[in-house]
Amino acid sequence: MRFRSLLDLVPFLPAILAQTGNSSKGSTNCRCLYGQSCWPSEQDFSSLSAQLSQPLIRPVPPASACYPVGNPSGNCSDVQQNWSDANWRADQPGAYENINFETYTNRNDSISGCYLNTTLGLPCDQGSVPPIGVDARTVEDVQAAVRFAGQHNLRLVVKNTGHDYLGRSAGRNAFMIWTHHLKNISYDGNFIPEGASNNEVVPALTLGAGVQWREAYAAAAEQQRFITGGISSGMSVGAAGGWVMGGGHSAFSAKYGLGVDNAVQFTIVKADGDHVIANAHNNSDLFWALRGGGAGSWGVVTSVTYKTYDLVPLVMSVINAVMLAYTVETWTAGDSGDIVRQARQRIAQEVRRLDPISPDSATYMNEASLYEPDFRKSFFGSHYDRLRSIKRKYDPGSLFLVAEGVGSEDWDGSLICPV
Ligand SMILES: Cc1cc2nc3c(=O)[nH]c(=O)nc-3n(C[C@H](O)[C@H](O)[C@H](O)COP(=O)(O)OP(=O)(O)OC[C@H]3O[C@@H](n4cnc5c(N)ncnc54)[C@H](O)[C@@H]3O)c2cc1C
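Structure tokens for the assembled complex are given below, as produced in the milestone run.
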């Protein structure tokens, strides 16, 4: 896009101001970002802190422990040793499985980030790691954080493991709710969803929002039960976060279905701060949306209850993974913004090349690209309008926004200003 005069820039000023940190309180409908005058004061944060079970957290990119280079602020050898360990990354509020999501590309193509390779001589910047947040350990922590974000019109990010392939748990200058420590697990062999009749009994495992698959499998096995979930080395994916809201594919899905087929109940903090149950009998529209309507668009899930199965020796005779095209583009520490942009363009081109081959097909959003030509069609198809109206009902102010999520088309690419 080329601008002919400064006047042409006027429609874009809210977005530009929001990104440069110069907008003043109440002057736009844009989300309030760290560094702007609208950002909550220390006193506001103290009032929030008084309602929490834990101190506020100040997430930093993991490599920041190695800076300043001559006098590292943290345990740099620990960082170097664990850099590629997915479970170690999930334990850090400021770390992401794909480290590119820790960086931010500025408008002038320079990159803000913090690289492990200190010999590059680059500064260590915050990038897309939210600078402050809540280490949620209780439902009340989540409620206080959600209300605070709503009251101050903050760009809100919900982060669990940070594994998301679309980077939806990162956000520059945002406020973070970190669900990683919501680790409660309980088994009920006679679970009846709230409001259901006694003949709907199901042996079920209820997992807090921060439980990861390795923990869920172990808890199920202790009860001589099996739960169908994600498979990866280290089993570090969240069992009750983005995985299930995006569908929840498992190597066992051919026999037991997707995660969404096995989820019988959610508990969730809505945008208004209320904590509710969503199942087939309560808030059934929200229950429907949470089972495949995409992560991060409906509220903060605090727990998911899954059906379990008898633990029998499982034989996976054939796992057929058919990939029409598998495109990975990444960039390395020190690459310029221009190289990053070119990599992004190549992905977008590859994704567009697939469209004519499979015109009416869909895309699995949990393992998709940020460059879907029309995410509404490829992720949600004919369900989109219904999802949109459920979104309006439960989150009328669009507090919960993620890239390529329901309702995100009304916002700019950074999810900061309405368009
Ligand atoms: C190593 C690896 C293996 C994988 N294996 C599989 C697999 O076998 N099957 C499969 O289907 N997918 C798989 N995925 C993809 C995975 O399901 C997605 O990346 C998913 O989004 C991860 O969710 P998370 O909550 O762990 O991560 P995060 O990055 O923390 O969160 C992902 C999204 O969910 C939102 N979110 C997280 N928790 C909550 C919550 N409590 N309430 C509301 N929103 C929330 C976040 O805001 C974000 O939008 C894998 C990914 C990786 C990196």
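Residues 185-310 form a domain with the Uridine Diphospho-n-acetylenolpyruvylglucosamine Reductase; domain 3 fold (CATH 3.30.465.10). Residues 117 and 342 are 22 Å apart (CA to CA). Further analysis is deferred to the final report.
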